[in-house]
TrEMBL record:
Protein name in UniProt: HIT family protein
EC number per UniProt: 2.1.1.-
Alphabetized UniProt keyword annotations: Methyltransferase, Transferase
SUPFAM superfamilies xrefs: HIT-like
Glycoprotein as UniProt keyword: no
Keyword tRNA-binding assigned: no
GO annotation, biological process: methylation
Length: 126
């Protein structure tokens, strides 16, 4: 298992971030958490990697909450599409595990049902 942690996939946009110094990216509090080891999706992660992802998500939530008292909720996605999309037939477009953590604020959407899809134009669930 330990040896697999160094796996990177040529041509993978997320694997290419390895030497960029950016493990956590954010824009207006929107954060993207990407495990370093390449895999097709989150189901390929080892338990220790899942645990590390959860710890980073919790830490980021704490950081953002401390910086911005207007945050009143959180939305997030597995694999940036909602739920868990594993495979092209399921709608997966980036074949590397990743999670979005998006702060939500009271009134930032007329209808917050549907989670993060409500804050990304054109993605509101029908």
């Amino acid at each position: 298992m330990q040896a697999s942690y160094g796996h990177r996939e040529a041509g993978c946009v997320f694997c290419a971030l390895e030497d960029s110094g950016r493990v956590l990216l954010d824009n207006e509090g929107h954060s993207l958490v990407i495990p370093r080891r390449h895999g097709a999706d989150g189901l390929e992660l080892h338990q220790a990697e899942w645990n590390a992802v959860v710890e980073v998500l919790k830490l980021r939530r704490e950081q953002l909450s401390a910086q911005d008292a207007s945050i009143s909720g959180w939305a997030g996605l597995l694999n940036a599409r909602g739920g868990l999309n594993s495979g092209e037939a399921a709608g997966q477009t980036v074949f590397h595990p990743h999670w979005l953590l998006i702060p939500r604020r009271e009134g930032d959407s007329e209808e917050p049902r549907g989670g993060v899809r409500g804050v990304i134009p054109g993605h509101q669930a029908c």
